[in-house]
Amino acid sequence: MSFSAIIGCTRKTLYGPASESFEVRFQATGLEISASDAQDRTKGVLPGGTALNIAVYQDSEFILQKPYTVTTEGAMTPEDGTVLELEAGDYDFYAYGPDLELNTEDKEIEEVTHGVDLIAARAVDQSITGAGKDISLTFNHLLSKVSFGIEGSDDEGAVVVTSLDATKLTLAEMATSPATYTLGSSITPTRGIGEENTYIIDDFEQAEDGKSTFGEGIVLPKANGTFGLVVNVFLNGSALELAAVVPSIAFQAGKHYAFTAEVMERVIRLKLTVLDWTNAKYIEDGTGDVMVVGSWELLSSGEPDLGHGVNTGFTVGAWTAAKYAEDGTGQMMTVKEWEHSHWAETNLGN
């Protein structure tokens, strides 16, 4: 004869007389472990002190949920100080963070929104025996990271930038928020219109010299399709609104979509590099393919002329999306392809 005991968030099945239990310990892997508790997880690491939950199931039946803290060595220590003990048998373990509300019956977290860095891991069909068990949990990011930076160009004739700052980036036609995550699976990418499909970044860090700025955020995975991008910037004191319809692209979980606007001679060029999450900023060194999304026409409204000194008066003209590569891959143009095409259009009138 068996019966169940429910204590707080813990539900454990006992079989007749008390059975012997065995210790189960966990180790976090898959994400770089930071030695600093202050390290921001959005930078791509799992800092010591991060709180995670582990939900335990047996034969699809919820057994218990227990909170843990990650040490700087990656070990997961129970917050209540007691090691998890389970009777011999086969179990499924699901770890996730941050601490979101879990529907234990359906294994669902129903309120995953933009801006939440949800990480998760699983270890299923784990046999607990008389020797106990050490379980390694490999964590992954379930959302996408997006960043935006704007900077001057080193090209000859480019605008001389004395000050450059961004105040707000708005992304439209993103995934619908909130989304539902089922333990052990992934978040289904979506795309739509409306406020629930808009994401705003308004926290930008300006470089010490005041000539570039950078900001980043976290969005739910987005299904393939175009989307709107609007960024408000100040270039040499001129307030500019850069609006664009970005060509079709999907945002995949665990990837970093790094957009960089570059102030050139008569245009502001928007580039995109797709990297792994751990790259905080795009690096044009072969770690990711740098593609050109398009460009805004940059118009001078004062003296001196572009490329011949500091200009404090600018307006923005039309947005032109870059053509796709001519190799049939459906990819955006590379920087070199765009420069060749742009030079031809500017100098040959093509």
Number of helices: 1
- How far apart are the first and last residues' alpha carbons, in Å? 84 Å
CATH architecture of the largest domain: Sandwich
Largest sheet: 9 strands, mixed
Please state the oligomeric state of the protein chains shown. Answer: single chain
Radius of gyration: 25 Å
Alpha-beta classification: mainly beta
Specify the overall morphology: elongated
Helical content band: under 10%
CATH topology of the largest domain: Immunoglobulin-like
Please write the string of helix (H) and strand (E) elements.
EEEEEEEEEEEEEEEEEEEEEEEEEEEH
**What is the domain tally?**
2
Q: Give the C-level CATH assignment of the largest domain.
A: Mainly Beta
Portion of residues in beta strands equals over 45%
Describe this structure in words.
With 350 residues, the chain is mainly beta. The protein folds into 2 domains: 2-141, Immunoglobulin-like (Sandwich); 145-348, Immunoglobulin-like (Sandwich). Helices cover 4% and strands 53% of the residues. The protein contains 1 helix and 27 strands. The chain has one helix spanning 335-348, and strands at residues 2-7, 10-15, 21-29, 32-34, 45-47, 51-58, 61-70, 75-78, 84-87, 89-97, 108-112, 119-128, 133-138, 140-141, 144-152, 164-171, 179-182, 199-201, 205-206, 212-219, 222-235, 238-251, 255-263, 267-276, 290-300, 314-321, 333-334. The strands form 6 sheets. Strands 3, 6, 7, 8, 9, 10, 12, 13 and 14 form a 9-stranded mixed β-sheet that branches. β6 (51-58) and β7 form a beta hairpin. The radius of gyration is 25 Å and the shape is elongated. Residues 1-17, 34-44, 280-287 and 304-309 have low confidence and may be disordered.
